[in-house]
Amino acid sequence: MTELHLSPLNSRHRDLGGRMVEFAGWSLPVQYTGIRPEALAVRSAGGVFDISHMGQLLVHAAAPGIAAAALDRLLTSSVSRLKPGEGQYSLLLNEQGGIIDDLIVYCLNETTCFLVVNAAMVDEDVAWLTRHLPEYVELQNRSDQFGGIAVQGPQAAAWFEKIQRDAGDPQPAVLPPRFGILDLPRRTGPFYVCRTGYTGEDGFELFCPGEFLGLWWDAVIEAGATPAGLGARDVLRLEKCYPLNGSDLTPERTPVECGLSFAVDFSKPEFIGRSAVLQQKQQGPAHRLVAVRQTGKAPPPRHGYAVFHNETRVGTVTSGGMSPVLNCGIALVWMETGHHREGTDLMMEIRGKRFPCRVVRKPFV
Amino acid sequence: MNVPENLRFAESHEWVREETDGTVTVGISDFAQEKLTELVYVELPETDRQVTAGEEVAVVESVKSASDIYAPISGTIVEVNTALEDDPTLVNSSPWTDGWLFRMRPDDPASVSQLMDAAAYENMTAE
Q1: Going by DSSP bridges, is the β-strand pair A26-31/A5-6 parallel, antiparallel, or unpaired?
Q2: A23 - beta bridge partners?
Q3: Domain extents for chain A?
Q4: Domain parsing of chain B, residue ranges
Q5: Span A91-110, mean pLDDT?
Q6: Pick from A66, A246, A314, B96: most CB atoms within 10 A?
């Protein structure tokens, strides 16, 4: 086994009693005090997550608009429509329309775009982008230079203001609007503040070199944020039906099947995967990623469990868990079309026994 | 760690307490519940089931994982802790008492003494 990447916050996690696990080649805390209390703290006030594992890519060209136009041929969203300081959720597809990665793309300025990608996909994304970007567009993998934290919850914006104020900054920065990015360069490098997250709560994500990260981590905890681990992050995103790449999203599944057509701009004349996805959109997909909730007392749903209609297997759980907010089992299920409608009652098989469940509207919470 | 001295232990972290009526009560150790993290579901065996030492008899599930519980000795399941159906976290909050899992009637009462004593178990988990 290769050596695990250590976050700049590694010693802080250990001091806080974090239970360290391997995730996408990184050693990160799955929890500190408990997944449930941490998740509930994020929903009620706010929490802070280490997201140093996330990948950061810069795409740059000498002339204005060129980098964005090049990305428009590789990503599903309309990158050229972004003004400096704006971002959007987007997908990287293969020729068959399957999802290689989901990511957030920001327009930093007229010549440079910033991509935040999944940790496990950095190498693959870089290889794919390198292969398909024109040679006059430069791709830089900055993942090693950036650490990151996500501050999430209804109090997150107030904490950001308070930290600025307490630092005595005469011109305190203001958080950008949703999906926006603010560059507050420090002497030692970039300092990006993004109004984004993976919990469905308001909040921001900071990406900067490790030394500043620790100061901000300490400051948001001082302001009231609960340190929260990967476990809370996973169940919070599941409650909001945000898909997880590698579990819910795979290179065999398309944005139409996964309910991500909102991230696809079909008005663009060309991007990799467009014709396959467009054809599927017109014909209707054979499978759909749907939200399923358990309707009785049952073990929590887990990846791989089968879902039945009478004696016919019609679906497979791609992500599952026990919702701290709803106090019941919730899952994303790869379901045959025809059984995907809200209100459809089905059975989930767990260790040979069947438990009732129902297709419900997204998101769960 | 506080390991009650009147209990016996299996290597798979189940504890066994001998009761005055000849049955034994089975639970999992404080060490085990701490490793498992907060439980969200406990699947208990049927009563009257005959089990062999080492057989999977129950499943405890945390948010992240499902873990098997093994019969520490051979015997018959005579009672299960139904309170865990409503509150599986009893296993976390009181692993030695209210969080017990099931009671068994041993096939051979002497089999309990072949399990580890508290000192041996403490040694095993101290590493």
Answers
A1: parallel
A2: A26
A3: 5-52+146-238, 55-132, 286-365
A4: 8-107
A5: 98
A6: A314
The span from the CA of A148 to the CA of A50, in Å, is: 6
Whether B93 contacts chain A with CB within 8 A: no
CA–CA dist A251, A103 (Å, integer) = 14
Say whether domain A286-365 belongs to CATH 1.10.10.10: no
Burial B104-124 (b: 16+ CB within 10 A, else e): bebeeeebbeebbebeebbee
Q: From CA A10, how far away is CA A3, in angstroms rounded?
A: 14
- Nearest-Å Rg of the Cα atoms of chain B is 13
Which residues on chain A are in Cβ contact (under 8 Å) with B59? Answer: 299, 351
Class of domain A55-132 as given by CATH: alpha beta
Determine the length of chain B: 127
- Per the prediction, chain A carries an average pLDDT of 96
Chain B residues with CB inside 8 Å of A330's CB? none
Predicted confidence (pLDDT) at residue A1 exceeds the cutoff of 70: no
Digit-coded pLDDT (tens) for A332-343: 999 999 999 999
pLDDT of residue A187: 81
Q: What ipTM did this prediction achieve?
A: 0.87
**CATH (one of 3.30.1360.120, 3.30.830.10, 1.10.238.10, 3.10.690.10) for A5-52+146-238:** 3.30.1360.120
Contact A35 B37 (CB under 8 A): yes
Q: Do residues B71 and B112 make contact, with C-beta atoms less than 8 angstroms apart? A: no
Enumerate residues 13 to 72 of chain B having a beta carbon within 8 A of any beta carbon in chain A.
37-38, 40-41, 43, 59, 61-64, 66
Q: The domain B8-107: what is its CATH number?
A: 2.40.50.100
Q: 3-state DSSP helix/strand/coil percent for chain A, to nearest 5?
A: 25, 35, 40
C-alpha triplet A342, A347, A353: angle, nearest 5°: 160
Under DSSP, is residue A245 helix (H, G, I), strand (E, B) or coil? strand
Residue pointed to by tokens 């391997």? A22
Chain A interface with B: residues with Cβ < 8 Å: 19, 30-31, 34-36, 231, 235, 297-300, 302, 321-322, 351
3-state SS of A351-364 is: CCEEEEEEEECCCC
Comparing C-alpha atoms, which of A233, A346, A247 is closest to residue A289?
Answer: A247
For the stretch A279-296, pLDDT in tens is 999 999 999 999 999 999
Q: How far is A323 from chain B (nearest CA, A)?
A: 9
Cα end-to-end span (Å), chain A: 39
